[in-house]
Design brief:
The protein is mostly helical. It has helices spanning 7-15, 20-32, 34-61, 65-80, 88-91, 98-112, 114-126, 134-152, 154-166.
Amino acid sequence: MKHPIDYDDWLGYLDGDLDQIRTARVREHIDHCSECRSTWNELLEATAALRSAAREYAAVHAVCDDEVRSGRERVLARIRTLESPSTLESVAAGELTVGRLRKLQHVVAPVGGARTAFRLIVAAAGRTPVPQGTAAWRIFLEQLTDLTSALCGRSMARLVWEIGNSLP
């Protein structure tokens, strides 16, 4: 038997996005074709399960807008009040090389802007102890990741962490 319902029709019918003529054609076919009726019932069950899982996930993992706004404002206030050097060269010391800092600035800049990215680096460097070696870089990177998370979100912070750890 030929089935006149294509993939787009299934999705459109499921979402209620088909025009009246196509909706009637799909409905009529489902009413008369047991194979497509079975497919339709499976789609309904799968959609219901996905919606239920999404609601459960949102209930557990939702963060209140006020919490996000508050954390973001604290970070912004902290980085705005810093004595800010004018260049990355003046921030660089030991393992905090200009090249490494510039790469991290380029990672954050598309999301927060170049100036914010620069200020995040300055804030993280200001909180990093002076010891030389990889310990200083790791501490700096942890600080920058924390600040980036509060300002730009966990995904961006994870990207900063991964790229920072991969820099030579």
